[in-house]
Specification:
86 residues, mainly beta, Rieske Iron-sulfur Protein, 4-stranded antiparallel beta sheet, 0% helix, globular
């Protein structure tokens, strides 16, 4: 999904919902197409993994983190806070 021009992947792992920018920091690939496992998401192209909570890159090929966003459940709705820089 795209929120305020930012591609966002909403991911469930370990019973928690996470929102992470849906673009690998190594190469412009959608992270939402990758595998989710143990609180991480894998880029399908080169196998880079990212921590869903912090966005930290785990292992090669990516070294830069990916932005993450706060998630709030409001009834049946999922709210994601996208903060834009001034």
């Amino acid at each position: 999904m795209v929120i305020d021009d930012t591609p966002v992947a909403i991911v469930r792992s370990g019973g928690q919902l996470y929102a992470i920018e849906d673009v690998c920091s190594h190469e412009d690939m959608a992270l939402s197409e990758g595998e989710v496992e143990s609180g991480t998401i894998e880029c399908w192209r080169h196998g880079s993994r990212f921590d869903l909570k912090s966005g930290r890159a785990i292992g090669p090929s990516a070294i830069e983190p990916v932005p993450t966003f706060p998630v709030k459940i409001n009834g049946r709705d999922v709210w994601v806070a996208i903060h834009q820089s001034a």
